[in-house]
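User: Quick sanity check before I run a bigger batch. Here is a single chain. Can you write out its predicted 3D structure?
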Amino acid sequence: MKPYTKKLVLEDGREFPGYGFASGKEKVGELVFNTSMVGYQEILSDPSYADQIIVMTYPLIGNYGITDEDYETKFPSIGGMIVKENNNSPSNFRYTKTLAEVLDENDIPAISGLDTRMLTRILRDAQGIRAIITDIDTPVEEAVAKIEAVPRPKNLVSRVSCKKRWFARTANYKYDIVAIDCGMKYNMVRSLNNHGCNVTVVPWNTTAEQIMAFKPDGVLISNGPGSPEDVPEVMQTIRELRGKVPMFGICLGHQLIALAYGAEIGQINPGHRGGNHPVKELQTGQVLITAQNHGYAVKKESVDATPLEITHVNLLDGSVEGLQCLEDKVISVQFHPESAPGPQDTIYLFDKFIKMIPPVQK
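Assistant: Done. Predicted structure follows.
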């Protein structure tokens, strides 16, 4: 058996030795698990995972490599990746690089050979536990001290959002949509393009006045990392846009809409991260399989005091998965209707958003 080269140390001192297969960087981050069977490229390039160390529960990762067309952002920002087994010889005619090569290029550490089942059980019963990826020779006391010395990050949205506006156009477009980038996945833009929308993507702190200057037919508030309470600027923008233009919030955008309307947000344990969460649409009774990535949720009891109506609930824990205010033409969902790869059960929500837009002549 070859000697271990790296280890994961939890903030409570538990150690998990393994084999480093990417960057040699030492990294502290919140430890989370994802239950997806495919989509590791989309996960590592999802800005919602900024600074988080991701434990993949599926035992074999890397087997189809990395493909240039499948990124969800240009610059991956995850803190690290933990896998049971890394496949460094992918079998896929589309692949251009291995998982290890991409992680190394972006200075992201990764470890294989760990007991990911035990890690998942620990994370299932813990909340917000942090860890460090470090050399195998680092004393555990030193590793724990390094974790304690690193403050928990605030307002990660400002780091992963675009720095200036950009455009995504489509042929024979019908609508102009402004998307507030809180850490947005590219497939949200692709999905809007596929529904006949030209999209103007703007930074997270763009004001309502600046957004309305584009004369949008609708506004999308994207997913993103961290707590929604870290970005009151976006909440204020939503308040000022209420009733003026149709809005669609996804994931963090959903939580921000809830806060803007007066609802409350709380942490959930464990978080929802993966492509297999059953959600019930209350109007139809239909059960949808959804892709999710969040550690916060809207408090159900707080919605009653707002103009919002609950439209979807999670069948695993009863948490709020969808909201709407028909008077203001506002809808939001906690899951990802644009999931790629992932279930396509909820792509219809983009149609629902488009139907809220009054007929326009272009």
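The chain is about 20% helix and 30% strand.

User: Great, the batch can go ahead then.
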